[in-house]
Amino acid sequence: MGVAVKLTAILHHQLPPQLPNILSHHHKLNPLSIPRKLTGNLSCRCASTAAAAASGEVIKEEDDQVLLIEPLAVDEIKGICSKWVWRGYTINYLKYEGLNGGDKASPPVLLVHGFGASVAHWRRNIPTLAQTSTVYAIDLLGFGASDKPVGFEYTMEAWAQLILDFLNEVVQSPTVLVGNSVGSLACVIAAADAQNSLVRGLVLLNCAGGMNNKAIVDDWRIKLLFPLLLLIDFLLKQKAIASFFFERVRQRESLRNILLSVYGNKESVDDDLVEIIREPALAEGALDAFVSIVTGPPGPNPVQLMPQIKIPVLILWGDEDPFTPIDGPVGKYFSSLPSQVPNISLSMLQGVGHCPHDDRPNLVHDKLVPWLSALPSS
């Protein structure tokens, strides 16, 4: 089990170094922008500040009392998802409008998950964002409840095109893309499309440097590991070896240990999260998708893409991320951008790992909701 955990970390991004704390200006969330009467998914109950902080769902703090918006239940998410056919493949997605229906102050948002995740990974964020925006979330091809076609060659470019086609055919309105990990990179590729006018803004949560580690060869840690990465690619292309490794990785305790290693807030690693990751991994085609993604081409480099993006960009980075640490080449690049271009802002999130939106969602909402409300009207 320990070997599976360590090998998965190697396959994904980088080894954990000591990370510095970089704090940006703290924006207070205006509670007046959140309606007091919300949908049935809202639980208006009092709790201690400490308990609320542990749950990660603090929306308002007042005299040691808090107003909480509960996450969507996983079964509820499954029940309200829809299907969309893209190039002959079935794609799972969610549309969630909350109390105010289509009358929203902020543009729609599309949530794009990271490696191994799905729509349900945003369960702690959808109800909050839906108070001011129509929220869409999508399962990328190969993940979640979307198709996992055997023999499909997964690429970052394919996922980016899927996102653009979804905006064009389903959302049909200028949209803010919010991505985590490889989902962030897919959003960057989509937003960099010079002909695209459907991306209104871009939010990157610990953006990946590529679909796999082979994109980051200028980091000394990856240089040391690169021969091992090539060996792993070769081994994973042997079906018996890949099946054995994948079977070990998708066991509940292995997944829990992997998640605990990349989350700063360990209390967010609950049974629901483990099942959110595990259930799609049991589906037909999941092994083929895993091998194709890990051994495939890393895709376009964000260093070449970001200068092409002129829309507003918000970068949120967990300072305890072992996969894309802030002192690694990807983290250093993104942290340097706000001083170079005016359309990009950055906030470091203390005590947060690779998946900030699920790790400590209150910190993400505190930055994201005001940023969305401040976007230019056109």
UniProtKB/TrEMBL annotation:
Recorded GO MF terms: chlorophyllase activity
InterPro entries the UniProt entry points to: AB_hydrolase_1, AB_hydrolase_fold
GO biological process, one term: chlorophyll metabolic process
Record's GO cellular component terms: chloroplast
Membrane-crossing segments per the record: none
The entry's keywords: Hydrolase
Domain of life: Eukaryota
Pfam families: Abhydrolase_1
Domain AB hydrolase-1 residue range list: 107-361
Keyword Protease included in the entry's annotation: no
Gene3D superfamilies linked: alpha/beta hydrolase
Stated name of the protein: Alpha/beta hydrolase fold-1
Species of provenance: Artemisia annua
